[in-house]
């Protein structure tokens, strides 16, 4: 078995999108892990068991892993489990994504269709850059961040670990978003946001 082969972790919703992008760039997905076999198997993948079980066969195979988990905290924990077991996390970048040659992309990251990452941006590990989002020049994204479809980060924006930037939201140039922040869909952010806050609206306002 070749190390060019990969195992998909999670197999529903977001994982379908990741799997499709990975297959399009020639990744050989040999199977998936999940708590149980899933009834809907659109890519005809073999069920290999659950990664948290001690008898999980995936740890014995010469294969890398692909993260198909949308939840930021869970994705980060699973990534740590994969690394602890001495396995590689594959970064998947869609054929139609535009990534600057001067940008730095961490391991286990997924960059979906029509997403753009511009000059000198730094993208952490296990990040999701979803469909059509824009990460402008010199942005810095921490580990396990999720930038949802259509969101725009103007230049020099920073986003802390595990934060979620909702669909079609806009972050003003130079703004700093803390860790574990949730920015609602369509929100406009013009000021820094501290750790752990939830923000919605235009302009963005804190909610409980």
Automatic annotation (TrEMBL):
Superkingdom in the source lineage: Bacteria
Protein name, entry field: Acetyltransferase
Pfam family, one: Hexapep_2
Naturally occurring in which organism (per UniProt): Flavobacterium cerinum
Entry binding sites for substrate: 12-14, 70
Residues carrying the site annotation Increases basicity of active site His: 138
Domain PglD N-terminal: 7-80
GO terms for MF: acyltransferase activity
Stretches of the chain forming a coiled coil according to its record: none
CDD domains cross-referenced by the UniProt entry: LbH_AT_putative
Family: Belongs to the transferase hexapeptide repeat family.
Residues at the active site: 137 (proton acceptor)
Positions with a binding annotation for acetyl-CoA: 146
InterPro entries in UniProt: AcTrfase_PglD-like, Hexapep, Hexapep_transf_CS, PglD_N, Trans_hexapeptide_repeat, Trimer_LpxA-like_sf
Alphabetical keyword list: Acyltransferase, Repeat, Transferase
Keyword Magnesium in annotation: no
């Amino acid at each position: 078995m070749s190390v060019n082969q990969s195992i998909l972790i999670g197999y529903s919703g977001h994982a379908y999108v990741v799997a499709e992008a990975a297959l399009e760039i020639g990744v050989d997905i040999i199977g998936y892990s999940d708590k149980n076999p899933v009834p809907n198997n659109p890519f005809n993948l073999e069920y290999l068991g659950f990664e948290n079980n001690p008898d999980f066969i995936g740890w014995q195979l010469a294969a890398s892993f692909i993260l198909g988990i949308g939840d930021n905290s869970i994705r980060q924990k699973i990534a740590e489990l994969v690394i602890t077991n001495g396995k590689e996390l594959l970064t998947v970048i869609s054929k139609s994504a535009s990534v600057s040659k001067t940008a730095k992309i961490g391991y286990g990251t997924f960059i979906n269709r029509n997403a753009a990452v511009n000059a000198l941006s730094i993208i952490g590990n296990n990040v999701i850059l979803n469909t059509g989002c824009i990460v402008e020049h010199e942005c810095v994204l921490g580990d396990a961040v999720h930038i949802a479809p259509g969101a725009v980060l103007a230049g020099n924006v920073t986003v802390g670990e595990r934060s979620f930037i909702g669909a079609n939201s806009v972050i003003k140039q130079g703004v700093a978003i803390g860790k574990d922040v949730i920015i609602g869909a369509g929100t406009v952010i013009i000021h820094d946001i501290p750790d752990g806050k939830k923000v919605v609206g235009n302009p963005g306002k804190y909610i409980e």
